[in-house]
Amino acid sequence: RNWRTGYVVPVMSGVLSGGIDVDNSRVSFDHGTGYHDHNWGFWKGVSWQWGQMQQGDLSLIYGRVFPPAEAADPDRIPGFVGVLGPDGPLGYATNVRILETNDATGRPTGVTITGRSPLLDVQAAFRVESQVTTTMSQGPLANGINFLQLRGTYTVTGTARERRIALSGPGTAETFRTISPK
Predict the structure, then answer these.
(1) Could you give the CA distance from residue 54 to residue 172 in angstroms, rounded to a whole number?
(2) Which residue in 166, 175, 179 sits closest to 128, CA to CA?
(3) Which residues pair with 130 in a beta bridge?
């Protein structure tokens, strides 16, 4: 339906070098590990669930895009989970469940992710430790929802291409929440 968009992850787990200077103080990223993705195209009215973490020689990424109803049937857009090892992808799945849990105010507290395919059987739990909320109520992308960027800890278990996985470490996630009327 003429909805053109794209998403790519050129670096799931890469070596960082450099730093940021703020007010005569330097934050060094030398010997760190980083992640880079990019999206492009038509994103008005789009929301998603997404997250990633890396530990040692493994990286996990998951997500699901929810296009506007006039562009595509959201129920026909599968989610994905992928695990990358030191020599490339170990496995991915589109048989995915992403469940968010909230506190009494609707603030996210966690996400559980499961992904299953012939080469991948993983379960991940993400515990939210902090969040940044961007209100999307004005401008050309106004859509009545808040964009939430989350930081927390992942615990991942399962197998990828017969490799046993047991990870626990920091990571990030993104999601959206409807703006409550005042």
Answers:
(1) 10
(2) 175
(3) 151
The amino acid occupying position 165 is I
Instruction: Tell which residue, 154, 63, 148, 51, has the closest CA to residue 106.
Output: 148
**Which residue, chain included where needed, has tokens 């973490």?**
53
Q: How far apart are CA 90 and CA 59, in angstroms?
A: 10
Nearest CA to 141 out of 45, 59, 14, 20 is that of 45
Q: How far apart are the C-alpha atoms of 103 and 107, rounded to whole Å?
A: 5
User: Tokens standing for 101?
Assistant: 């849990």
Whether residue 150 has pLDDT greater than 60: yes
- pLDDT category at 38 given cuts 50, 70, 90 is confident
The single-letter code of the amino acid at 55 is Q
Spell out the residues 6+ positions from residue 152 whose beta carbon is closer than 8 angstroms to its own. 110, 126, 127, 128, 129, 130, 170, 171, 172, 173
Q: Closest Cα to residue 103, out of 131, 76, 79, 142?
A: 131
Q: Which residue has the higher pLDDT, 29 or 138?
A: 29
Q: What pTM value is reported for the model?
A: 0.82
| Residue 83 CB contacts under 8 Å (≥ 6 apart), including other chains | 58, 59, 60, 89, 90, 91, 92, 120, 122, 160, 165
Q: How far apart are CA 41 and CA 136, in angstroms?
A: 18
Paired residues of 81 in beta bridges: 62, 93
